Amino acid sequence: MSERSFNVFTARAEQIDPEANIIATYYVEGKDISIVEAGVKIAAEESIGTWTEVSTATEWIVKNLPAKVFEHKVQDKNTGIIKIAYPNTLFDFETGGIPHILSIVAGNLFGSSSLQNVRLLDLEFPSEFVSLFKGPKFGIEGVRKLIGTLDDRRPHLGTIIKPKVGLNPKETANVAYEAAMGGVDFIKDDETLTNQKFCPLADRVTHVMTALDRVKSETGRTVLYSPDVTTETYKLRDLAQVALDHGANALMVDVIPCGFSAVRLLAEDPSIKVPIHVHRCMHAAMTRNPKHGISMMVISKLVRLAGGDQFHTGTAAGKMGGKEKKIEELISINDFLKGRFYRLKATFPVASGGVHPTLVPINVLTLGKDLVIQAGGGIHGHPEGTRVGATAMRQAIDAAVNGVPLEEYAKTHRELAVAIKHWGMKFVSDD
Ligand code: RUB
Prior knowledge:
By secondary structure, this protein is an alpha/beta fold. The chain is built from 19 helices and 13 strands. The strands form two sheets. It has an eight-stranded parallel beta sheet with strand order 7-6-5-13-12-11-9-8. It is elongated, with a radius of gyration of 24 Å. The chain binds ribulose-1,5-diphosphate. Residues 160, 162, 190-191, 280, 312, 314, 319-320, 352-355, 375-378 line the site of ribulose-1,5-diphosphate.
């Protein structure tokens, strides 16, 4: 590394003002270069540098725009953690928003031939940037208010209608009705169901909401339904409007296929007055490799900024991720979503994927009560059907919240006992 590069693209920690920079933390593995050299390569590429010196850089550019490596911790020879400060001046926060931030802090660097691996672990934002976002419209408290759990603060029970796709609108509504009568608080489409011919969105929402109105009149309970409006950006508002016009009391979107701005578009539209449920399918292409890609923490921060009211972050035990699951990371992500973050409302973490009653206690004990715990197969796969399956899940939540061992609780709760007998007390995996 030339002395000039070192001087331009590094700084001492005390020189970095967190209000004047976006700060990114990376895990890096240099290819025969030190981690500071690797960091300088990233800082240069993502601010004012390229592979060679250029004669066109003005004094103003060199003074104001370079990103700077200001902290590093070597783990082993060429691997370690670095922090890079990207000066606010590099961005037009208002115009660029999240896409522009990502073009820089998560841009060309992933393909750099100087790096064996690189993973964006965390992002910290100056208040000037965060102040431009409205965040979740409802947040945990708002969703609890809609469902009526502000006082008892138990975890919410959600279900994903199964099979993933194929039911027609009437069949979907029947399953929704049974699940709601069994005790679920929240119903969602699976991430692959949108507006297919076998189950058009408008018809589906009409039927499901009619069923949920029946549940309301029979039980007094409000159950939320979030139809999936994942689509092309230019069609998103219209598709959401179709769902709302037919009575949807929540909306769902797949954030990685659609982009963070799709969530923001829905959340910040004043005419959309329902919670936004955010699914994370495709995230593992970025999050699964512990050495390369983008962490779930970064994705979760961006979803909260963009305005997701509920967001899938994973389970303490379930079908996704298996043995590689890092519970500590999951806990810190959920803590971030639930904790203070400037003035933005909290996002409800969602634990989903392979959950059935037996796995409820470990999820609730590990992740806490401010949690939406979801089961698809774990409800609709109950030997006695959806309604009994939902009741068994609710019983498992009650047992966990009251600290009663599941097998003990099952002695007086038949639905739960049947579920335990069916699935056993073991961890499931789809591998
Ligand atoms: C749940 C399901 C969801 C996953 C996504 O169905 O398929 O799409 O929860 O996983 P089931 P994650 O309950 O039958 O497994 O929340 O980890 O992104």
